[in-house]
Amino acid sequence: MKRVINADGASLGRLSTAVAKSLLQGDEIAVINSEKAIISGKKKEIKDEYKQKREVGTYRKGPFFHRSPEKIMKRTIRGMMPYQKPHGRAAYKRLKCYIGVPEQFNEKDAEVIEQAQKHYVDSMTIKEVSRSIGGKL
After folding, report:
1. How far is it, in rounded angstroms, from Cα 107 to Cα 83?
2. What does the H/E/C string look like for the chain?
């Protein structure tokens, strides 16, 4: 069963937990508008945290942390699953994240996860975070 989830205005952590749980139960999920998800906290602290994640490791061995918004979303969801186990890896392969809305999902109704629609006073979108660590979007 293919589910399409709209990340517009959703909290990244709350959305990620809901998506990870569905993936582990066997659903195929496509997350659209992943650049519009929100990370809560003070802007300077968020930028510093993501810059530090980007700088850890070496260019040959990793760990590698991507700059593009859909990869940041995908990596966050991966952190909520038992990725090192076979069923976690199989679940991760059923996940697709997209910037904007691709043509194949134009006609489909995208779900909105209500528990992730919490608005915070201090927050940044993934697009802003991506730009701050050198993303091209």
Report:
1. 32
2. CEEEEECCCCEHHHHHHHHHHHHHCCCEEEEECHHHCEEECCHHHHHHHHHHHHHCCECCCECCCCCCHHHHHHHHHHCCCCCCCHHHHHHHHCEEECCCCCHHHCCCCCECCHHHCCCCCCEEEHHHHHHHCCCCC
What's the whole-number average pLDDT of the chain? 93
Using the structure block, give the residue that is written with the tokens 């969801």: 77
* CA neighbor of 113 nearest in space, from 8, 24, 28: 8
Is cis: bond before 102, omega within 30 of 0?
A: no
Which residues partner with 29 through β-bridges? 3, 95
Which residue ranges form the domains of the chain, and what is each CATH number? 2-132 (3.90.1180.10)
The pLDDT confidence band at residue 58, using thresholds 50, 70 and 90, is confident
Percent of the chain with pLDDT over 70: 99
Mind listing the pLDDT tens digit for each residue in 84-129?
Answer: 999 999 999 999 999 999 999 988 889 999 999 988 889 999 999 9
